[in-house]
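Morning F.,

Quick status update on the modeling queue. The single chain you submitted on Monday has been processed. Sequence for confirmation:
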Amino acid sequence: AAEPRPRDQRVAEPGALHFFAQRWLAGAVAGGVEAVVTMPFELTKTHQQVTSMQAGPGASRPPLGVVATMRYVYGKHGIKGLYFGLPIAMIQTAGKVGIRFSTFATYKRILCKDKDNPSPTEQFVAGCAAGATEAAVWITPCERIKVLQQSQVDATRPIHVGWLSSLMMLLREQGVPGLFRGLTATVLRNGISIGIRMVLYSKITKALVDARGGTKRAWDPLVGGAAVGAITTVLNNPIDVVKSRMQADQQGNGAAKRFRSTWHCTTSIAVEEGFSGFLRGIPARILKISLGQAVIFFTYEHAKSLAESIL
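Structure tokens below.
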């Protein structure tokens, strides 16, 4: 029998770039669909997480739930209010999901001894690396702009009315570092979450197939995606609150910086709001991320098959 190819040569196999492009395209399509479907929940989550910060320490904080917040935003701004920041959200989500699946597949080719049957540890490490990559390269600057826009949905005179004008203002006033506020929190949140999601998704979908004696169903990715979305949301909500506060801070146009660092933001929330401050937005996030991951995995599986047939 032929000797196995050395591990350090597998990534350079013919078609590696083609393989990467197929998965990036499928991921980008899945991300764009997810952004449109889940945008109202994303805006609701951000609104809940940053409302108390804008009110200031000691100010009253309206106890708005998911439905009440949506009705409040809809009552003031109509349906367009629930889709405030959609263009940057679509750009961000299409890019990040494309990066996620293409780098995850690439990291698996590098790390796994048996790329057709990776171990849970190999999947977790590849997932963490993919999540950290998408966070550092793409998510942080995109979410900085998106959160600034969404945090001003109630502003009488918002200064962030378009993603391009927001980008130019941040670059002019704060330079490139202004786009990367919240980088540490975003990398931590994303890296761990994607690692867990990839392992659990594989386990859940395999269990569904095994329970039917090896028969696959088209809706398996919906179930697996929704389940991993809910689980990781509960686990990473505290760091997501910190990320949102960091990215809504120092909005530009001369605004002062409130938080010196990720740790300062974390301790400020703990002192001013207690543990409940880290749970803000969790119902909206569970709805948004469970639905979003179901859409992403379902769309990705089908888009990947299509991409492989046409590319």
